[in-house]
Amino acid sequence: MNPITLFEQWFSEEKSQNNRKLSNACCLSTVGLDGYPNARFVSLKEIVEDSFVVTGSLSSRKGREIENHKKAALTFWWTSSERQVRIQGDVTKISQALAKTYFEQRNRDSKIVAATFTQGEEIQSISQLKEQFEAQKTELENREIKLPENWSGISIQPIRIEFMEFKNSRLHERILYQHVENRWKSTLLQP
């Protein structure tokens, strides 16, 4: 089976078992600017041309890390189905048109936050942050919020995808797919 098809099947099964939108949540890991791994949770937008798309501020730490080292990993943990998927791959920036489409799908408050703040920068206080947000919300009340220059997304073209299904017996079923010579090669792994 093609691992992208298997991922989509597992993803669909998790969404049907779990009525919350957390099925899209995944851990994005990058190589830090200091050489240490860095991880944070993001939301998978969709799979486009067999690549996994996530969005956000490219001037953030994750954006700078990806610009410096165009490789990343995604890890999904699905509680309802007790499955894990690990993806490693090469990163490219998505098109401006696709970024605009994703930005327009965000709720208004998310757009205001993206347009107002520089993700990951230091602040003086939470109350100052809230005041600035409310001021921007009032100022932008009847105006369209345009895509910020630093907001886009990345596409992760997988080179490895590992699926693990947890079992009560502890004999977890693991299969690793590796993209080698333009085809997927699968290997069974011990638990």
TrEMBL record:
GO terms for biological process: pyridoxine biosynthetic process. Keywords: Flavoprotein, FMN, Oxidoreductase. It comes from the Bacteria. FMN binds at residues 40-45, 61-62, 84, 174. Its cofactor is FMN. One of its GO terms (molecular function) is FMN binding. Binds 1 FMN per subunit. Residues 20-125 form the Pyridoxamine 5'-phosphate oxidase N-terminal domain. Residues 151-191 form the Pyridoxine 5'-phosphate oxidase dimerisation C-terminal domain. PANTHER family: PYRIDOXINE-5'-PHOSPHATE OXIDASE, PYRIDOXINE-5-PHOSPHATE OXIDASE. Belongs to the pyridoxamine 5'-phosphate oxidase family. This is Pyridoxamine 5'-phosphate oxidase.
